[in-house]
Structure formats: C-alpha cells, structure tokens
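Worked Example 4.2. Consider the chain below.
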Amino acid sequence: QVQLVESGGEVVQAGGSLRLSCAASGRTFSNYRMGWFRQAPEKAREFVAFISNRGDGTWYADSVKGRFTISRDNAKNTMYLQMNSLKPEDTAVYYCATYSSGAAYKRESYLNWGQGTQVTVSS
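Applying the procedure from the previous section yields the following structure tokens:
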C-alpha cells in the first residue's frame, strides 16, 4: 500500500494559478503511474491528468489541456499539478491516485487515493 496526501488547494480568483502537491509514502513511488482526478459538488469524480512512472509520458482531459501541467519528482516522492488560467468550473476537490490497470481516464483503474484538497475559483 502507498499513502497519498494532497495539499495546495485554496481559494483563488479566476485567471489565477495554483500548484497542487501529492506526497507519497509507504512504497517505492517511482514504481507507480499516477493520476489526478477532481470532483465538483453533486458531480461524478472526473479524470484530470495522468503521468507515467518516470514522468516522460503525460495525458490530460480536454477540459484542462493547455492550462494544467502534471509532473513528478521521484526523488521527493511527490507529484504536482500546476494549474494556470483557472476558471470557476475548475472548482472541485482534487484527488491524486496510483494507477493500477485499465483505461487511465477511468476512476476504477486506480487503486490508492488521497483524501483530496479543495480548490475554489471565484469569478
């Protein structure tokens, strides 16, 4: 098992930027492909971004492509999500997770989840 802790969420104005972090412990972080998901009130959890275990492959949801950047520092056991040009519709709880198998955009393809961090974008 790997434990994940997200941080960095806060209230920001539209057009602003935030960087989320996901700190991992318990197992060798570099063995895991990872993903970010988000869940807005009364909506299903949705895929945001995916990164390979070495960080040389990334994939984004269309809704965030060109605005968000996923990255990782395996030496620090941490993954990041740089979010620029934030919009009110980006408001959600953001979760990081370890990929297991299946389609990377599906929630059920991930095994370990953090507790989430709240991002609120005001208009």
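The first strand starts at residue 3 and ends at 7. DSSP finds no helices and eleven strands in the chain. Compare this with Example 4.1 before moving on.
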